[in-house]
Amino acid sequence: MKNPRRNKFVQGSGFRVQGNCPQPRAQNPEHGFSLIELLMASVIMAAAGALLMGGLVAANRGADRRIEQSLMTQTLANRLALLDDQPASINVVHGTDETPLGSIAWEVQWHDMSGVPLTEATVTVTHNDRTTRLVTYRALPAP
User: Fold this and answer.
1) How far apart are the first and last CA of the chain?
2) What is the CATH number of the domain that holds 73?
């Protein structure tokens, strides 16, 4: 009886057998990632993270600016509500209000307008380096 013919390549052993000399089998490209692929994925993830962080910082700055603007507008409205209908004998009145963001400075200036029976009141609110102004007109008292 003849020897049955054997398969030259042994399956599942990790080695390819040709005759008596075992040789390592070539790695299948679908089994894992190369170092270059991992490096490129890391670079892409780092760039995406940097862009995300930049966007979050800008959003936080914008939110802080809107909060500050809201507090300044509220202070301006408060000063306007407390403004007398008749001009004060003092031309300039100023002070500060305490808020959660610190103190906000305010100032009220009265200006007589020539030729019309009105006076101009300018309310200015300042916090850090931002300033908001409001101008309103009031009737002069009857003589």
Assistant:
1) 139
2) 3.30.1300.30
